[in-house]
Specification:
By secondary structure, the protein is an alpha/beta fold. The chain is 44% helix and 17% strand. Strand 9 (240-243), helix 11 (246-258) and strand 10 (268-273) form a beta-alpha-beta unit.
């Protein structure tokens, strides 16, 4: 038989109202009552009725999240960091993937809204096509964008300072002796792709480096290999290659190895993200680490501000990255 709040109150020797106040934490009770009620609830194995609590408090204790693809190790890392932060605040995460499709993304947002989540965290898959669904959802529930964002304004965003990330990558290879630098990234369908290409162009202009036309495809290992084959078939190999993410960089490293090019002796390679296997590839990848834990903390903080309806301007929080030098680039002391 299911244990009820009446059973807990009886075991603790208090009224049902006192037991309810002690367990909900919404109104204060004396320390003695709180201790007796919580001990009775534990001893009896009492489980609160989540549905009733949600109806009473107008909250479900859940946050919905939509990412472009769970297979991308960066998004996996971000999801884990956000889930930890939400758990610290007593909330659970409901995760969906848009599969890089704005139509699927819109359906996932509707699904989460129908579950009456307390808020939404999204990394939109398309800077323009995602806008209608994201703005509609933001009008119905607290919403924060993470990593990627839509071109239309009106919602908060937390992510990487891409200009700083590309500046660190380009300055590092320049200090290592590179004079010609290539960029391999993604087609300009999302904000990360656009910002990383523009950040690269700004950085090479400041450094006075020579560059070639960027190679743009997908943020994938497969595209990195394909782009590497294109470089191998060109007239001249650049001194260094900066990649839009680690997946591209790791694919590029494999293509260069198969093509007989030594890294970093002949070509330096730098990625972005610092996903788990960046340190385990051969040679270990120099990369610009995304501050994932800090991004997760800020996203949860901003979401709570939106949820509480605090009056303030829309926030765009770009967090500084950190260069991690491994073995695919030349160290400046060499």
């Amino acid at each position: 038989m299911r244990v009820t709040i009446h059973d807990v109150a009886r075991a603790a020797g208090v009224s049902v109202a006192s037991a309810s106040r002690a367990l909900s934490g919404r109104r204060k009770v004396t320390p003695d009552v709180a201790e007796r009620v919580n001990r009775a609830a534990t001893d009896l194995g009492y489980q609160p009725n989540a549905v009733a609590k949600a109806l009473r408090d107008q909250t479900t204790g859940t946050i919905g999240m939509v990412v472009p693809g769970i297979g991308n190790p960066f998004f996996t890392t971000m999801v884990e960091a956000l889930e930890r932060r939400l758990q610290e605040n007593g909330r659970d995460l409901l995760l969906c993937s848009s599969q890089y499709d704005p139509l699927i993304e819109a359906r996932r947002l509707e699904t989460l809204l129908s579950r009456r989540v307390d808020g939404l965290i999204i990394s939109p898959c398309d800077i323009e096509a995602s806008a209608p669904a994201v703005l509609s959802a933001a009008g119905r529930a607290p919403l924060v964008q993470v990593d990627r964002y839509i071109e239309a304004g009106g919602t908060d965003w937390v992510g990487l300072d891409d200009d700083a990330a590309l500046a660190q990558a380009v300055e590092h290879v320049a200090a290592g002796g590179a004079r010609t630098v290539a960029f391999i990234g993604s087609r300009l369908m999302n904000s990360s792709a656009r910002l990383r290409l523009s950040g690269f162009q700004l950085a090479v202009d400041r450094a006075g480096l020579e560059t070639v036309a960027p190679l743009l495809g997908e943020f994938t290992h497969e595209w990195g290999m394909q782009a590497g084959r294109l470089l191998l078939g060109g007239d001249r190999m650049p001194d260094a290659v900066v990649c839009g993410n680690d997946e591209i960089a790791i694919g590029l490293l494999r293509a260069l190895r198969l093509g007989g090019v030594r890294v970093p002796q002949e070509v330096a390679v730098v990625g972005i993200d610092d996903v788990g296997h960046a340190a385990m590839c051969d040679p270990p990848l120099t990369t610009v680490a995304q501050p994932v834990d800090e991004m997760a903390t800020e996203a949860v903080r901003v979401l709570e501000q939106v949820r509480l309806g605090e009056r303030r301007p829309v926030q765009r929080i770009a967090i500084a990255p950190r260069l991690v030098v491994r073995e695919t680039s030349r160290r400046t002391e060499e």
